[in-house]
Amino acid sequence: MDASTWVPTRTPPNLLARLFDYKPFLICVCLAPALGLLLVFLTYPLGLGIWLAFTDAEIGRSGSWVGLENFDSLMEDRVFLNAVWFTVFYTAAATVVKFALGLWLALLLNHHIPFKSIIRAIILMPFIVPTVLSAIAFWWIYDPQFSILSYVLVDVLHWRDTYIDFLGTPWAARWSLIAANIWRGIPFVAITLLAGLQTISPALYEAALLDGASPWQRFRFVTTPLLMPILAVVLTFSVLFTFTDFQLVYAITRGGPINSTHLMATLAFQRGIPGSQLGEGAAIAVAMIPFLVLATLLSYFALARRKWQQGPENE
Amino acid sequence: MATVSIRSVRKAFGSTEVLHGVDVEVQDGEFVILVGPSGCGKSTLLRMIAGLENITRGEIAIGGRVVNNVAPKERDIAMVFQNYALYPHMTVRDNMAFSLKLAKAPPAVISDKVGRAADILGLTPYLDRYPRQLSGGQRQRVAMGRAIVRDPQVFLFDEPLSNLDAKLRVQMRAEIKDLHQRLKTTTVYVTHDQIEAMTMADKIVVMHAGNVEQIGAPLELYDRPANLFVAGFIGSPAMNFFKGRVESGAFRFDGAQLPLPRAAPGVNGASVIYGVRPEHWQLSADGIDAVVHVLEPTGSETQVMARIADTPVVCAFRERITAQPGESIRIAPDPALVHLFDEKTGVRLN
Ligand SMILES: Nc1ncnc2c1ncn2[C@@H]1O[C@H](COP(=O)(O)OP(=O)(O)OP(=O)(O)O)[C@@H](O)[C@H]1O
Ligand SMILES: [Mg+2]
Questions:
Q1: DSSP class of residue A157?
Q2: Does the CB of B104 have a partner CB in chain A at under 8 Å?
Q3: Yes or no: is domain A78-306 CATH 3.40.50.620?
Q4: What CATH code would you report for B4-225?
Q5: Which ligand is the nearest neighbour of the Cα of B35?
Q6: What mean pLDDT comes out for the span B248-277?
């Protein structure tokens, strides 16, 4: 026998091998673990939460279906409406300042400055301290009697005569919380934007320099447009984190004074667990979903791959 | 248009000096190429002319004005970067118009200048594309267009062709040269490719380890390299070198002997290095024996790798060679075209 007459003989594959060659089966097998995890850890709690929002469940009593009753009563609820308003305000104010300061820090760190790595480490600090711990620190900073801020302003600098009651009046408490959130959120913004800045080729700045661009023009025409894609991602995440914030507010003010600093998340917890109105708490939590979807959609469109970016065609 | 004068320029990064006193005069409208092996400081020198690196010592003058302390944008130069540095978020049109917009030129002037540059470079169909939608050669042209619209005193190019494939490189080489002949703008061009240097330059500056080895017209460097480094660097395939002594009117090495150049000075008895370009060997019955190792016919010529005694030698012949590997051929250099260098200093002797 020579090569021209030789025919390869194959033994027919057995049943198991054929099964694994069958594409639909293979897809199901490969997807199963991921789907299972999603189902158990994501879909079930979310589904349960949404279901509870339409019942009058309380702790210890599985409720029955009440339709939109929870939402109807929330629409009349001053505390809830106030929480919605404050959540939006809190998110907007904190995000604006976080981005302004974060971008400024990132630009600073992107230059050659002395002690760069130490400064970078210091900036990361708020991020690595557990939130509850820093909340307790802020609680002390904002204490009416022992506040270090009041001490400095009154006893050291003599700029004021009286100690500040940071958490005693609604507006003071609101701004105090926003300041704490900004402090907590800046590292994330600064470090991610710094990573974004470092992807911009220095040659582009040199080209712009030779083209006659001033520092401001380089920022405006080179840095900003090239940073936009990453800025949009960071903005989305920052808005989502801030909107759903719970720990800082709950640890510092618990929603007080007189419910003026409740965020939707803290109010939902307050009503659902200590107040044992599970159904109502769930309804408040569910009411956050449209806001979050809206924020995500907005940033999705802002994020939409820009024409100039690398990647598949998108016209 | 302007002259560029580089006078005893030194550059140090921290404590390491990378340029050790460089002097170059570029005439108005001249096309000067800085060439040298990787790391010899070509880009650094170019960036100093552009103002992207400061000048440690010495001075650089553009059009008679010392620019050591002049900001890059005031120097009226345009640079084409090795990786082109096109703004990825701007169309071809906006890339070319950017400097004019910053200079607040009227829109009519901008569109006129951009249109003309696009015309010269054949970019008109691509004006509304983004850089990522262009081929390498097209990007290269956009980078040149960005320089042209500025109408600068001096063009600076840093290895603009090194990212292109061989064929495109030859084409762009011709285009750049053609462009220079049309615009007559003073140009300083950096490359490590000596063929690019030979074919494009009015004047070549050969650099090596932070020093200038020789400055001259391409054929001058080819005909009379000032030292061993330039001799070995210019020309392809590279010059053959033989180490030996001059004794009684001939060059002797490894028991073989080669004729001395006619204008041989009093080098009798000296240890020298004898250089012959591959294309300056001739087949000759009274030449010396070389054992053929490899034959590479390219059609127009035949390259032969051979050995004289123990020294490898490369020859390029116009005529067809019939010898087989292992056979001997008899070859002789044209004595008018051989080079002698001092063995210790590497300086040319004839
Ligand atoms: N920013 C810098 N800091 C320290 N050393 C540098 C810096 N830039 C360049 N050098 C050094 O200066 C020398 C010359 O560099 P340069 O980039 O000018 O080389 P080149 O001739 O352009 O080489 P190539 O052909 O590889 O581009 C190199 O030894 C390099 O290591
Ligand atoms: Mg270089």
A1: S
A2: no
A3: no
A4: 3.40.50.300
A5: 1
A6: 82
Q: Is B113 in the pocket of ligand 1 (CB under 6 A)?
A: no
- Chain A nearest-CA residue for B148: A211
The one-letter amino acid code at B165 reads D
Average pLDDT taken over every residue of chain A? 84
Please tell me the predicted confidence (pLDDT) of residue A314. Answer: 45
CB-ligand 1 contact for B173 (6 Å cutoff): no
Cβ-based interface (< 8 Å): residues of A facing B: 201, 203-204, 206-213, 217, 221-222, 225-226, 306-310
pLDDT attached to residue A310: 65
Is B240-342 a domain of CATH 3.40.50.920?
Answer: no
Q: What is the DSSP letter of B348?
A: B
User: Average pLDDT in the A163-178 region?
Assistant: 83
**Per-residue pLDDT, A39:** 86
pLDDT tier for residue B262 given thresholds of 50, 70 and 90: confident
Rounded to whole angstroms, the Cα distance separating B207 from B34 reads 7
B38 lines ligand 1 (CB under 6 A): yes
Contact B50 A210 (CB under 8 A): yes
Of A207, A213, A222, the CB nearest to B81: A207
pLDDT tens-digit readout, A218-270: 999 999 989 888 888 888 888 888 998 888 888 888 877 888 888 888 888 98
State the pTM of this model. Answer: 0.80
Contact A63, A269 (CB under 8 A): no
User: Which residue among B51, B102, B132 places its CB closest to the CB of A211?
Assistant: B102
**Mean pLDDT, to the nearest integer, of B52-58?**
91
- Could you tell me the residue ranges of all domains in chain A? 78-306
Residue in this structure with the two tokens 């939608």, named with its chain if needed: B133
Task: Tell if the CB–CB gap between B81 and A203 is shorter than 8 Å.
Answer: yes
Decide if A213 and B73 are in contact by the 8 Å CB cutoff: yes
**Is B54 part of the contact surface with chain A (CB cutoff 8 Å)?**
no
Cα(B188) to ligand 2 centroid in Å equals: 13
B211-216 and B203-208 beta bridge pairing: antiparallel
Q: What ipTM describes this predicted complex?
A: 0.83
Distance CA B194, CA B184 (A): 23
CA of B130: which chain A residue's CA is closest?
A: A308
CB contact (8 A) between residue B85 and residue A209: no
The b/e string for B303-337 (b: 16+ C-beta within 10 A; e otherwise) is: bbbbebeebebbbbbeeebebeeeeebebbbeeee
pLDDT at residue number A62: 78
Determine which of A142-151, B185-194, B298-307 has the lowest per-residue pLDDT on average: A142-151
For the purposes of burial, counting CB atoms within 10 Å of the CB of A200, is it exposed (0-12), middle (13-18) or buried (19 or more)?
middle
Residues of chain B within CATH 2.40.50.140 domain(s) are: 240-342
